[in-house]
Amino acid sequence: MNIRHITLGGFLVSISIVFQLIPVILGEIFILATILSALPIFILAKINPRTGFIGFIVAGILILSFNSHEGLFFLFTNGPVGLSLGTLSCYSKVRRCISIRAGFILASTLSIMNFIIGIPVLLISIPGTLLIQISILIIFSIFYCFIYLYIADLTFNFLNKHYPFV
Fold first, then answer.
1. How many CB atoms lie within 10 A of CB 67?
2. CATH number of the domain that 136 lies in?
3. How many structural domains is the chain composed of?
4. pTM, 2 dp
5. Which of 31, 34, 59, 152 has its CA 20 to 30 A from that of 71?
6. Is the pLDDT of residue 101 over 90?
7. Where are the transmembrane segments (predicted)?
């Protein structure tokens, strides 16, 4: 890990923290802005998976210290999306495979939030039996990861073209 990765990591972790804490600062009406907190972690993990993992942990701890609710959501939703998509993108270029794998990771973390911690992650109660609920989470997660990967790759390529990371 070189000084450039550390500096970029600190900058991107700061951006991730700001995006995740927007609802705390500006109000719950801006809750959708938290989706963007995965993007800096994605960029870090795509450049260097180890730096991405460290950035994810540091951002999670700092967000938890400001607001436990947003910290949990970052550690179990947005953070794993950015980390898994970025890390898998570093090792593979097949978007479909990346999205499916990251989707299963996201479905696992959403299940922990929804069924173990007891916080509804889709803002609604998912109807049906446990098997149907988990199936809905898996389908949603894969679809979400596919769309997020497309947007994150466009953003990464644009930024890397104008401000080279590596």
1. 16
2. 1.10.1760
3. 1
4. 0.92
5. 152
6. yes
7. 6-35, 47-66, 103-124, 130-151
